[in-house]
Design a protein that fits this description.
- The protein has one helix and no strands.
- The chain has one helix spanning 3-49.
- The longest helix has 47 residues, at 3-49.
Length: 50
């Protein structure tokens, strides 16, 4: 195997890791945003039920 094969494979692996980390961070940010929107609605509903 030539050096260029190793360089190409390493670059591809780094790209996959970068996309994976970006997706993980975006997913967490989206989940926090959704949780923040759900809490006020839940808080408003609890006193009405009690």
């Amino acid at each position: 195997m030539s050096a260029s094969t190793w360089v190409e494979g390493t670059a591809e692996t780094a790209a996959v890791l970068a996309v994976t980390v970006a997706g993980y961070r975006f997913s967490g940010r989206l989940a926090r945003r959704r949780a923040g929107q759900a809490r006020p609605a839940e808080a408003a509903a609890l006193p009405a039920e009690a």
